[in-house]
Design goal:
- It is built from 8 helices and 18 strands.
- The protein has 327 residues and is α+β, with helices and mostly antiparallel strands.
- It has a 6-stranded mixed beta sheet with strand order 7-2-1-11-18-17, covered by helices on one side.
- The model has no long low-confidence stretch (mean pLDDT 92).
Length: 327
């Protein structure tokens, strides 16, 4: 590598953070842009008024590779994560792999990776354009944009397709990736649900996941909080509905799954994840343009797991560190 390149990363989810951390540990200084209110992407935690926080995105993570296992171990060491051992329904066995959750919410898993990075939050990238000097990245607050030597995109594949449709090879590869939406329901109940496992999964055509959020370690158990994820087909067929009618439908499905234990609902809010699950992945850790100035990755490259995003981000960083960029 002839000199330290200016590097922009679009997206502060697990892939973007893993990439940025590896680059910074190698002596580079990437700049991250994310439209969200904080780092983590679908490692998301949200508070409803005075209620405890909900994990309305990824419910837990598991680790199979040494690098991600070490990252989670470090988070546990500093109190940012813990093992979750919920009471589960038949057919769900968290003992086969440790279920790790962030403390006090899933978004906490992102904070150790994000520490010390040049992170621009609530900063949406509206365009990324090739120029003779590199890539101009335009944001909602800076129409003129900034110029970078290298550009990394870790946004969902359909969004990347819109940003980089002019890159023919990249666009063709992205066209082969399929992602599915997911409606999530954050539910506060008036009293505890008894005689029901903390996790129910796959027993409803409407819901693929129903869990007692307040059963996770480090959560406020003063309120009975549940999180539901709608099944992929249901989410797709109801994708463009407003949040209120979706919430009503999901509340009904959740109450049916809970059976006789149906406390009064105090609050119910739906959240739409338009690109939640990878149905057909790319099949390789990342994409790169022919000139080696544009890299794309995320969980959509090799699967829907958070670790897939982590591995993808690190693969991009390694490609850059190995010196593909020369000017």
């Amino acid at each position: 590598m002839s000199a330290s390149p200016r590097i922009a990363i679009i997206g502060a989810g697990m892939a973007g953070l893993a990439c940025a951390r590896a680059l910074q540990d190698a002596g580079l200084r990437p700049v991250i842009f994310d439209k969200g209110r904080g780092p983590g992407g679908r490692l998301a935690t949200r508070r409803i008024d005075s209620s405890p926080a909900f994990d309305h995105g990824a419910q837990y993570v598991t680790a199979r590779g040494a690098a991600f296992r070490a990252t989670l171990a470090a988070a546990i060491e500093v109190g940012a994560a813990a093992r979750w051992r919920p009471a589960t329904a038949a057919g769900i066995d968290p003992s086969t792999e440790d279920w790790i959750t962030g403390i006090p919410g899933m978004s906490a898993l992102a904070k150790p990776l994000a520490a010390g990075l040049d992170l621009n939050i609530a900063c949406e990238v509206t365009a990324a354009e090739r120029e003779a000097a590199g890539w101009r990245v335009r944001t909602a607050g800076l129409a003129a944009g900034e110029c970078f030597d290298l550009l990394v995109s870790t946004v969902p594949a359909p969004q990347a397709r819109r940003l980089f449709g002019a890159e023919r090879d990249i666009a063709e590869a992205l066209d082969g990736v399929t992602m599915a939406p997911c409606w999530a329901l954050m539910l506060v109940l008036a009293s505890p649900v008894t005689g029901v496992p903390d996790v129910l999964q796959g027993s409803s055509a409407t819901l693929s996941w129903l869990a007692r959020n307040s059963s996770k370690p480090g959560r406020d158990a003063a309120k009975e909080c549940w999180i539901a994820h709608a099944a992929p087909d249901w989410s797709s067929s109801h994708l463009e509905l407003e949040r209120e009618p979706v919430a009503a439908l999901l509340v009904d499905a959740a109450q049916r799954m809970l059976g006789d234990a149906r406390p009064r609902v105090e609050q119910a809010i739906a959240h739409r994840w338009r690109y939640a699950r990878t149905v057909k992945p790319l099949g390789q850790p990342c994409l790169a343009s022919r000139d080696g100035t544009l890299f794309l990755g995320g969980d959509w490259t090799q699967g829907a797991r958070v670790e897939s995003a982590f591995d993808s981000g690190r693969a991009i960083a390694q490609a850059i560190i190995n010196g593909r960029w020369k000017r």
